[in-house]
Amino acid sequence: GARGPRPFQAHAPGWESFSVDKSLLVEHSEYFRALFQSGMRESTQKEIQVRDLSAVGFSIMLQILQGEHPLLSCEENLKLVECASFLQVKAVAKYLIASINSDNCFLLYQAAAVFGLLDLFHSAALYIRDSYSDLEEDLDCLPPDLLGYVESLLPSTFVAVGAHTPTFEFLEDVSRTICYLDEDNNQWRTLSCLPLTATTFLAGMTTLDNKVYIVGGVYGYNKQVVEQSFCYDPASNSWSEFPSPQQLRYDVTLTGQEGHLYAIGGEFEKTPLKSVEKFDLSSKTWSFASDLPQAAGAVPCAQTMGRIFVCLWKPLDTTVIYEYAPAKDEWLPVSTLNREQSYGHCMVAHRDNLYIMRNGPFDDFLRCAIDRFNLTTMQWTALPGQYMNSKGALFTAVIRGDTVYTVNKMLTLLYSIEGNQWKFKKERAGFPRSGSLQTFLLRLPRTDHSIAT
């Protein structure tokens, strides 16, 4: 077992040498693990040659394994797919999946088909399916079997749920429904009714692997915290319960990544919480993660490029972005935005940009200012103009492909993200209920449900 950095040679046109920590390769690459544990001559050599692999791909792979986040050109994407496949590096395949966008989805889809990276292949196909109408002109470039696979998949649908608290069973309660937008007919339809004891009022809601999870929230006049958590699976159209966090909480933020749910902050008995808990879906257990840097409820949260970000504010002028690093279980400060009497209420992510929606000056919530933070350049840009935010539409935005969906009782507005602005794309029917909303995307096996009233 060699310790410390050891040079390896990757074969490219000419030779290039890389000095690499052996343990890093053993940890992440099936190829190197098998090689070093084989007892063959290579397992004890100080230098080995890796043939038929580009030095560019190998170099980018090392950057990613060391925690960097490079933005890749078409050619670099290809070399990296080849490297991830040949060396069997799951972390690199994950990185590629997290970086799928409208510029590289066709290239990654076809490269994944050639090199047999099945998760990347499926993820790129789903991205193309979701952006089908925007990418229509380019679909001809796909061979018939690859196009057929895309068309066999369910597209994601825009789903919303209002703030509901449990009432008597015999009362017909329309707020107890989850609804989705049937875009073809411009109608909202009822997907499912919440379980009788579930609340969405001040609850954390998120989706993970095409299931909806609800944690926390309150019911009744004295705001009792709901003690069960709930999961909805659209594939079987069924609800199930799972344990609640060890610390009961409402006004909690919930997000999911890689088989885990994270319940972030919130309140209990009118006291804001710093604590964060992580639920392992396979073992069905909660454990505490690192505390937030400060106690906070209703924490804005977004994921992009496989990374989790939150906004905290130090009332009333400072919005601070933190990244949660699951491997280190740390909250890392990323950047700060100072704006007089204004702070971030909602955050959404697209490519390597975070978009922060904040109230206009002097607590003007009807007009929203949007600031963009770029994770690659670490620069802030204010989007030009202000965005109508009547009745909180912008505080529940979700992004599918290059399209932003916002909604309230009056209308659903779609924007396309172009350069440094959100351009109005189209208008759809408003959500048929008043009150605050939570929104997300789901793939629905059936879309013939009754119209929501």
From TrEMBL:
Residues 16-65 form the BTB domain. Gene3D superfamilies: Kelch-type beta propeller (2.120.10.80), Potassium Channel Kv1.1, Chain A (3.30.710.10). GO terms for biological process: regulation of the force of skeletal muscle contraction; relaxation of skeletal muscle. Keywords: Kelch repeat, Repeat. It comes from the Eukaryota. This is Kelch repeat and BTB domain containing 13. It comes from Varanus komodoensis (Komodo dragon). The lineage of its organism: Eukaryota, Metazoa, Chordata, Craniata, Vertebrata.
